[in-house]
Amino acid sequence: MMKKIVLCSLFALTFVTSSFALPQPQARVEEMVNTVLGVLQQTELSEAEKKSEVSGRVQEYLNMPSISRRTLGTYWDEATEEQRQRFTTLFIQILEGTYLNRMAGYSGGTVKYLKQRVKGNKAIIDTLVISDELEIPVQYKMIYEDGNWQVFDLVLEGISLVRNYRSSYGEIIRRSGYDGLLTLMDEKVEEMNTIK
Amino acid sequence: MLRIFTILFAGYFILVGSAFAAPGQIESENNQDTVVELSAVSPDADFDDDFDADFDDDFDSNAVAPEQLIADPLEPFNRGVFWVNDKLYFYLFKPIASGYGSVVPRPARVSVGNFFSNLATPIRAGNALLQLEFRSFGTEIYRFVINTTFGIGGLFDPAGSIGGVRKISKDFGQTMGVYHVGPGFYLVLPIVGPSSLRDATGSFVDSFADPLRQPNLSTRDYLAIKFLEAENRLSLDHDTYEGVVADSLDPYLFIRSAYAQLREAHISKNTYDVNMFDQPVFNTDELNPLDWLGF
């Protein structure tokens, strides 16, 4: 009898874990990539329309508060609420400027999904972006939050974007303070907008 | 005599054979379920190491202190060289590359790149040996043999494009890093760009293994060939540097961090070795030398 109960509960457990398994993070990445590619392939849209379309849709997959917090690291804790707000707004604009302006030169390419690794609420998705004769390994680091898998870092050829921004922004804060960083970011956003 | 040959050949094929991973070690692509299960149920020792190492501090929700990724005591000097390189890039090298690119069609430039890359095999293979990475050594030798013959002297890369066996970057700076030599400090070299004390030393050592360095080739000609190689590479590049300059608050800091991270990635375990993920098609292919021997 006891054996049966144990066996049954074991079965029940395996059943429960499998049916309540988190949705696949790789599916989310594929969804995001396909959304972006889908927008880019709409020839009837102008460059500007494409940009706003992509930026609106992609944010759903990115955990921007988390990306901003991680980028500032310990400086985030020291900043006031207002400074954090300003930083996040500017940072989103800079990321948009960086990646959306780059899309203009987009000449097609394919994404190969290599491997998904999941550990609790964390996941790493390895992909390979193939365009012309170039192959760039792109890794998505994700975290399960608010009922969704969200990207909080991109690693291109071993270079983590968050780490890169954190290191260079940290250096700027060390030298010219938080306000110095915000001023520089302001200027950069201004510059990016005028180029458009 | 025949015996010696047999032994040599056997040794060669064992080495090359290591380029074809044993089937059990490969996670086939698009089969994520197996991978997840593998790590949960029967972790392959190597795989698990990488796995845990990749779930690093960045996954921690605790704030990480911004770190300077590489020491830079010579920053004022480096920034000076960086400034000069920037001007050289925009007013000299880039215009030359654009002109060259508009005259020479792209496929030809890709072939020139392949040729130089194939020629530099001894550097990569040698460093793979020094790092005791026999599989990478086998991969490089295999690529060299296939690309030199079927690829017409290295102009084409059938080993990569058909076989999916890709180049593995190895250099002496990396070899030193593997043996726990730190980068020392950041260096911006004139014309060459970002480097470090260790990696600049490494490049110098590597240049002795460069097949282009022939005793009957004058330094001037050697440099001219190197210049062609660099311009050719630049002509294939999609304005990477322009992008960094346009988008970052301080390009110097951005490139310094990126360089430090890139080299760290080169030295750490083969997380970014694309060959790791791919099922070698040669397993059942005509081109598989193991098949010829009846393995």
Q: How is this structure best summarized?
A:
Chain A is an alpha+beta fold and 196 residues long. Chain A contains seven helices and five strands; from the N terminus they run ααααααβββββα.
Structure description:
The complex is a heterodimer of chains A (196) and B (295). With 196 residues, chain A is α+β, with helices and mostly antiparallel strands. Chain A has one domain (24-194): Nuclear Transport Factor 2, Chain: A. Helix content of chain A is 60%, strand content 22%. Chain B has 295 residues and is an all-alpha fold. Chain B has 2 domains: 2-58; 75-289, no CATH class. Chain B has helices at 2-17, 32-41, 45-54, 75-103, 106-119, 121-130, 134-149, 158-161, 172-178, 197-207, 219-236, 240-247, 251-267, 289-292; strands at 186-189, 193-196. In chain B, strand 1 (186-189) and strand 2 (193-196) form a beta hairpin. In chain B, helix 9 crosses helix 10 (197-207). Chains A and B meet through helix 4, helix 5, helix 6, strand 1 and strand 2 of A and helix 2, helix 12 and helix 13 of B.
